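Progress report, Aim 2. The chain analyzed during this reporting quarter is listed below.
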Amino acid sequence: MERFTVITFIFLLFFSCRSNKSNQQDPVVEADSSTLDSINFQIRLANQGRSIELLDKMGDVLQTNSPEVKGFTLDSKNAPAYIGGIYLNETGRLVIQVTDDSLTSRRKLEKALDADDFIIEPITPGNYSQKELYAIVEELNKRTEKLQGQPVMRNVASYGSSLKFVEIHLLVNTPEKQNEFRKQVMDSPAFQFTGMEIALPNPIMGVNDTLGVFIRPEYKAYSTNARDVSFILYNRSGETIMCGEHYFATFEDEDGTWRNVVTQLGFVDIAYMIDDNKERKLYAYLFPDVYPNKPGRYRFFSEICIKDNWVLMMCEFRLTDKREEWEKAEKTPAP
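Predicted structure tokens for the chain:
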């Protein structure tokens, strides 16, 4: 870290000295993008090192942590009330958010840290400090915990605070679903919603049998209200194969375009080994109470490893709204 600081300082000093020689006509040398990227990286690295030093000093001087813990803790009872947040900007400089007058706050911090190489960011009306965003997320945690299992929460993939807002990622991000969340869970101007509003086209294809490995839907048809669909992965390759929890699915719309199905976004990274002449049941979890699925053709995709090669397996299945059809659906015969 210190070596980069010295290199950057020498470079800047050298550049400054050369620029002051106004009487000499030096040839213009244009730095390529890789050189500029390297210079910017060194500057950012030096700034980050200095910012970390300042954070350590803030923790010591303001006594926000126990002796064995370094750095500044925003939620400590000893943290000054006028400090609303801290972060490093894109150049690695330390930014301190303040709720009081910015000039007064800077003087206090300069005196306490015996330094001035940091940026003061005043919290203006309409903006939120990190401390305020943390408080909003804490309240959101309490409310979502009470609503676990409800359709409104099944549409929530994740949420958390960023530098300027609370981001809420929805599986289906339509104005109607956003309004549903605000009414049933919590409302705040600090919320920013992300996620899919319209099912995106996805024409990808896979294989349903290769090298002695087969994948089939367990049943020939499922209900449009089904919460999960099951598949059987058969291993007849003569070797042990590997699969995981990751999958995705697509559906064919009325125009014949294949689009992404709303499914879970998070998976546990577990490798399952399937011996020769064995099979494993796989599942796709659908969200009919979040995004009603229409009758038609669907595809399930899962990547597996055969003989050190990763292969995208695919099989088609059907959803139907005819009760008699899905109730009497037969099991797909093993290959």
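The longest strand covers residues 309-320. The mean pLDDT is 86. These observations will guide the mutagenesis work planned for the next reporting period.
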